[in-house]
Amino acid sequence: MRLVRGDHVHLRPPRERPIGELRYREWFGPLRTARQITAERLAIPLPTFELGSVSAPDRLTTVEGEHAALIKIEGRFAQRPARRVIGIAFGDYTTALLDGMSIVPEHFAEFEATMRDLTRRTTLVLGTRRRRFVYQRPYGWHAIANVLITHYLPLDYPLNNSRITVYPALPLEFKGLHLFDVVLAEERGRGAAIIERAPAAAITTTTGLEGGRMRIVSQVPDGVPVANVLVVFEDKRYTYPLRLQVTADDAEQPSDEAFTRLWQSVEAIGAPVGVEEEVAQNFDFWAL
Length: 288
Description:
Structural class: alpha+beta
Order of helices and strands: EEEHEEEEEHEEEEHEEEEEHH
Largest sheet: 9 strands, antiparallel
Strand content: 35-45%
Distance between the termini: 6 Å
Shape: elongated
Number of strands: 17
Helix content: 10-25%
């Protein structure tokens, strides 16, 4: 049986195949982590449910290339073994949620596989755009998020006047807005002279993403030299720009080491795959 109320969809299986039931919600609050969403769902009282174990989020990519995650929860419902599965698809500002449970152990594996498939096939129709991408944030640095741009400041800021900036990945057709040229124009715009411009060096992430690293040093009159260490990776669909700003004399200190660890961890955004006509069949199983 399928019940639809607003953006809520409740799906129940036919009696002859009690695989499990699930709820889907396309607009499930603002963007937050899979662990935060799981904690929110588990904090909602569910009569007769006893929590057992909660798995770490399993990272997925949807057929559209969006970030997603799957969490498996073991427990007991009305004294019977239960497996709850939460699937999350991440948009730019909101998330889509699949939350389902099976209480028939012989169907646990099939139910989990169905939830995984439904999560992968969740379609948000967001298209080609600026995108967040996956990387390891610098340990111990403060994060300041500004829409799709995130700045990281060291714990001893402003004594350590360093800043790491992670920009959104840009579709390749916007390659003309190159970070190197933008920073040069920015520095000249504030009256700084370019006193050093090292040629771009080829670099590669631990996942094989290729790009270039350039160091630009500028100085305003009577000011201290400032180094901008710029990194841009590129694949067939996106460019991935990052930036370290630091006092020139400190460019090879821990701030640069933290920045290096960050850019080495950058992962390419998953490419979309063809969505077959069978995409609706998993949902239709519950429809009468």
